Amino acid sequence: MSTMRRLNLIESHLVSRFPTIPYDDSLDEFRKKGTEINIDILQQSYFGPFYTWIKDVFKIMNENPLFNHFEEAEMSREILRKRIVHQIATIYPKLKLNYDIVKQDYMKKLGLLYPMADYDIALAVRLLVHIVLYTDTITNLGTEKHRDLVNRAYNIQDYGSFAMTELGHGSNVAKIETTATYDHATREFILNSPTATSAKWWIGAVGKTANMTVIFAQLYADNINRGVHVFVVPIRRNDASHDTLPGVVVGDCGKKLGLEGIDNGFILFKNYRVPYDALLDKFSQITTEGKFKSSIKNKDKRAGIMIAGLVGGRICCTCGSEQDMRLGLAIALRFSAVRKQFGGQEGPELPILTYPLQRLKFIPYLAKMFAIRSCVIYSLGDINAFLRKLEEDPECLEVNEFHAILSSVKCVSSWYGTACLQECRESVGGLGYSSYSQLGRIRNNQDVMVTWEGDSSVLIQQTGKFLLKQIQKSFKGQKIHAKTMTFLKTDIHEINAFKPHFESSQELENETLILDLIDYRLNLLLHQSLLKLQESTANSVDMVDAWNKSQPFYVQEACKAYGEYIMAHDLLRFVKDITAKDETLGRIMKKYWLLYTIGVIEKSLVVFMEHLFNASHVKIVRESIMRLCNELVEDSVRVIDALAPPDLVIGSVIGVSDGQIYKKMIETVEKSKRVYEKPEWLPLLLEIKGIKK
Amino acid sequence: MSTMRRLNLIESHLVSRFPTIPYDDSLDEFRKKGTEINIDILQQSYFGPFYTWIKDVFKIMNENPLFNHFEEAEMSREILRKRIVHQIATIYPKLKLNYDIVKQDYMKKLGLLYPMADYDIALAVRLLVHIVLYTDTITNLGTEKHRDLVNRAYNIQDYGSFAMTELGHGSNVAKIETTATYDHATREFILNSPTATSAKWWIGAVGKTANMTVIFAQLYADNINRGVHVFVVPIRRNDASHDTLPGVVVGDCGKKLGLEGIDNGFILFKNYRVPYDALLDKFSQITTEGKFKSSIKNKDKRAGIMIAGLVGGRICCTCGSEQDMRLGLAIALRFSAVRKQFGGQEGPELPILTYPLQRLKFIPYLAKMFAIRSCVIYSLGDINAFLRKLEEDPECLEVNEFHAILSSVKCVSSWYGTACLQECRESVGGLGYSSYSQLGRIRNNQDVMVTWEGDSSVLIQQTGKFLLKQIQKSFKGQKIHAKTMTFLKTDIHEINAFKPHFESSQELENETLILDLIDYRLNLLLHQSLLKLQESTANSVDMVDAWNKSQPFYVQEACKAYGEYIMAHDLLRFVKDITAKDETLGRIMKKYWLLYTIGVIEKSLVVFMEHLFNASHVKIVRESIMRLCNELVEDSVRVIDALAPPDLVIGSVIGVSDGQIYKKMIETVEKSKRVYEKPEWLPLLLEIKGIKK
After folding, report:
1. Does some domain include residue A590?
2. Among B145, B484, B577, B598, which residue carries the largest CB count within 10 Å?
């Protein structure tokens, strides 16, 4: 603890107007009832390759007074943005990245961002926009001649941004309006924003910081639209003036409902000329004779490949949901173990985490959190292999399958996370409405996960297209090579032939049975989606219309089920890996797996009741869930303790690890602005009350 | 429009750096497809007794530059609090209330608050705390001698607050720690806050404003705890000094995640002596001989009656959820009718409200909004009769039944509202993340509805106790007089004998059938809850434990079903009443009723599939929902236009009634702080990039 902080604490203690607060051992008592667990093994298994980065970054944060959520809560937008730049400057140089290091192991880059996001998504994203979205786009779509820009980016000689979204277009990138017209006379591109809605919008780092950007624009060569291409261009002078360049307008998008530390901005071009080399020309080029050529013939596919740089962003976004859940659950579980309200007919009040209802609200989300993390470790873990494939053959099956997994998992985790944070906020009651709980900030950060890196209900349709294509292939008798689609059954009779048998929770909690149920659900939903699509085709104006009609209740549900299928398998792998290292942990983790998968089944009871389940199955499923929550509740407090970042990183007064929540709340409130002062507007109040001064 | 505003607009237009924005007729075009409706009849039916108050208050707001969300978004907590006091001072005196007016028609008070809440929940609540929670508590629990305080309150000679919740106790009011010890020697009460957790907490108006409060405290007389009683006491001098009184500590609870305009504060007492008349002594008194007596013998019941003053608050809270939904849906529907993204294989991009998925996200919430509003009009509408009953016999069946309805409806509407606002935020995509969309502010306001006036998952248990008590009576052969419980079937065989028949959407969309299905669901859930309770009793330490074990999946669900049953009937009454006035409107409203009730059935498919429904019923239910959404979509834009407050009151750039969302967004952003300025922290940025000045 810094001397300053210590002094502040002592001072606030001295002037406190509250009665003395005795030590509250509620959290200790609750923890004691849990199983003794090997924290190191849990942390190493859970954080995987990020483990050491986390320790390093948290150490920097702990030693630096720049990291303090309480101070940030009261800061203006402008000051907060400065603060984050300062925070980046404190962390980034100590953990140097460069092209070669990242090429060797891309995970290092994500590992750096991960603990930063634990502190604040805005902090991580402020850097991510630059070293992932900007830098990866140049790396993936550029060629050898752009290497210098990549190096400059890793050295922060340039600060980059990623200008894809426009005011008028987000999800439909193919229809963006910004144009880049090739002028053969000078071998330049002329960038233009022909309409107000073509303004690049929400572009992180553009409001105040970036001097560079990668611009997505419709390329016109020979007066023909060649589809969306990407150009790396300067927008501000890279000198002490920081002036916006002639032909460019940049501004700040203003106040947001969260993530105020990110300076999202807009960009407009007016006949802004950039040299030929601004084109990231790996897939498309214009010859010195002025002829356009591209190795990807299909314009739509080309647009798809242009946004491949979003892969890193989407993985971070998936991680982000898991992180927000981890923070939210740490706060909510600790608070609920301390907070006492009501009790038995006799005796003292009980911690609210004693109540089944409260357990049911939180513990299943802890299981979901493990499911997301496992998926990041396993299905999304070998990103190096994916990036190699992407370089070799961006249209191959493995690349498409990776996109399908990532799209579905990004979306499912964003919905899990948003619902979880809302539950955490609500279910800790009024004290969760205080800024000092941090639940509001974390929920507002989480909120955007559903929107950015692809609006979830649109993005997940990419998964749907992949899956239905595979099934159609299978129907045609072709062999399915996609490694995640071994579940697929083409014959509906075979699907319907499945008759699970369980007459008790014990019989239900069987690995094989559960995996079969998960398979069944996915198969049934996919078949129903396909039928719905066929049915819709008959009364639609075109295939797009039919597709849209098949989304509600069908394709969307099937795609979510695919994401959950992936997560169920990945979490099981996690359980097995950790069991090999530590049996006690393995037993606990197995219960989370059961809770996750049976929870998935419970949310889909309607599907199962169509042919398989009756009322007594429903009862058994719910009994299992409730019993698992009850069995896991004390262990869950220990587990979240092991996985939660230090108090300073969470910054929640009601989620402090020592359980002194009331003490911390009072201390914080007493240190707040103007806590005991009269209102500045007393004269107005007196006037209204008719009191003469 | 004020001259100032006009000048600002012209100025901003002159300096805009954006391309000219042509008029966007998307919203007009979308509206045109809807049915021509009688706006007056719709407004009068929907707003009922509030209709004229709304017009009056909106007129004041429109004429006064004090009402401007854009300006408020950038204000500090302190300034915002002043602003709201100023706003209250602008509205309240023009619509004078006093004891007699309120006595004659309590709805007038709520009618004043309602349009204020349309502008900002914080504005309404800032006044509500004073004229509902504080004033009603004195009115309901005090006697003739307290009348002067009530008059002073209506004249704002005092500013009051409602000090029930403590740092350590919210839902469990019976266990609050503040004590009021009767001292017969001086015939005074001595108020004390024995612990830090006994600090009154979150008390609206206490942070800066209030000079008075009603304090909930454990009354000790003759050294015996007589349970929770309420005392009206001064906390600050009612003079120009505004000093806190000796023996009292008041402070500000600090930053919140929303509602920053409310100065929530804390109160501590240290041997604070107040005269005997501070006791609100309608139900309990201490005789001049020093003997405690009370007309309500049971201590628990007494505590229940003490919080009867919350009735007005809970009705406002129910209204609040409906209002937040109305604002959110106005923004989301208009935006989605304007925003175009994707389209058919050929042709232009289509409004996103064209897509079934987007329709399914919003239209069912519009139906829910009507259901809440109908319930406020009918089941909760005769509050005057309720207040008379409460005065005559606070323990009678009608009072208990009203509480059961209100508790369930407050909770159900809070969950509807929170989910709806989250959906609105998410489903308008990135532009919804801008502060200028107002969706963040409205959602953060809505968020607290689940928590205040009784944490919803705790409060709804009051309904559960009422319902199960009635069933138990019925089992014993007693006649059930509760007027909302005509659905009740005691014989499970009779319930199970119900065999609905429908083989198409058309057959399903039958009033009698749907009401039977809604009855069936409620009966089945109640029976299952009772069984669960019996089963739990067998393996629980006491009845409280058994009760808690019966909450998840059972009692909670039954109580929600009761609230939805009430709403389904009230909405049907609304449909019939409006049909009598206007058949076109009646036809549209009937569709909302179908959508509401079939939506309720859809969310409960698991219940219906236990014995009644098979896969084809599920399909029919969902087809009906989707078809109704499709049929209602254009009308819904017209309907929300009629019910949405003026643009100034909503303040959303993406929800403007003229549909010029991009224009408004750009104008607003260009007027934001520092939009085109360089960062104040440029030196830091240059340092990081290694650029010398």
Report:
1. yes
2. B598
Q: CA–CA separation, A328 vs B355, rounded Å?
A: 34
Type of residue numbered A558:
A
Residue type, A228: V
Write out the catalytic residue numbers of B. Answer: 453
Asked if residue B255 lies in contact with residue B77, where contact means CB atoms within 8 angstroms, the answer is yes
Query: Are the C-beta atoms of residues B235 and B211 closer than 8 Å to each other?
Result: yes
CA distance A359 to A357: 5
Count CB atoms within 10 A of the CB of residue B232: 24
Residues of chain A with pLDDT under 70: 1-14
First to last CA, chain A: 47
B685 neighbourhood in chain A, CB within 8 Å: 85, 159, 209, 242
How many folded domains does chain A comprise? 2
Q: Which of A601, A619, A643 is the last residue of a domain?
A: A643
Q: Do A552 and B266 lie within an 8 Å CB cutoff?
A: no
Sign for the CA dihedral angle at A236, A237, A238, A240 comes to negative
**Option in A254, A340, A691 nearest B672 (CB):** A254
User: For the packed helices B310-338 and B383-392, what is the interaxial angle rounded to 10 degrees?
Assistant: 160
Nearest to B679 among A208, A663, A681 (CB): A208
> What is the 3-class SS of A95-127, one letter each residue?
HCCCHHHHHHCCHHHHHHHHHHHHHCHHHHHHH
Phi and psi, residue B431, nearest 5°: -65, -20
d(CA A439, CA A416): 16
Interchain pair A196, B19: CB under 8 A: yes
Percent of chain B having pLDDT more than 90? 91
> Where do we find the tokens 């429009």?
B1
Q: What percent of chain B has pLDDT over 70?
A: 98
Cα–Cα distance between A654 and B257 in angstroms, integer?
A: 15
| pLDDT, tens only, A388-429 | 998 888 889 999 999 999 999 999 999 999 999 999 999 999
d(CA B238, CA B537): 55
Contact A181, A190 (CB under 8 A): yes
Q: Three-state DSSP class for B148?
A: helix
CATH number reported for the structural domain that contains residue B556 in this entry: 1.20.140.10
H helix intervals, A539-660 = 543-549, 556-581, 583-603, 605-611, 615-643, 647-650
Q: pTM for the complete prediction?
A: 0.97
Contact A606 B609 (CB under 8 A): yes
Extract long-range pairs of A481-485: CB within 8 Å, 24+ residues apart: A481/A397, A482/A397, A482/A401, A483/A401, A484/A379, A484/A401, A484/A404, A484/A405, A484/A562, A484/A565, A484/A566
Q: Give the model confidence (pLDDT) of B413-441 as tens digits.
A: 999 999 999 999 999 999 999 999 999 99
Residue B268 domain-assigned (yes or no): yes
Specify the 3-state DSSP secondary structure of A341: strand
**Residue A91 maps to which CATH number?**
2.40.110.10
pLDDT exceeds 80 at position B8 = no
Q: Which of B652, B675, B693 to mutate to test the interface with A (most CBs of A within 10 A)?
A: B675
Separation CA A486–CA A479 (nearest Å): 11
**In chain B, what is the greatest distance between 2 CA atoms, to the nearest angstrom?**
91
Collect all residues of chain B within an 8 Å Cβ-Cβ radius of residue A345.
Answer: 542-544
From the number of C-beta atoms within 10 Å of its C-beta (0-12, 13-18, 19+), residue B333 rates as buried
Position B13 in a domain: no
For tokens 């880049």, name the residue: A180
As a whole number of angstroms, the distance between CA B515 and CA A166 comes to: 48
Measure the CA–CA gap between B267 and B248, rounded to whole angstroms.
Answer: 7
* Residue of A570, A5, B203, A169 lying closest to A578 (CA atoms): A570
In a domain, A379, yes or no: no
Domain hosting residue A225, numbered range = 64-281
Summary mean pLDDT of chain B: 95
Nearest to B221 by CA among B248, B187, B195, B194: B187
Q: How far is CA A359 from the centre of its chain?
A: 25
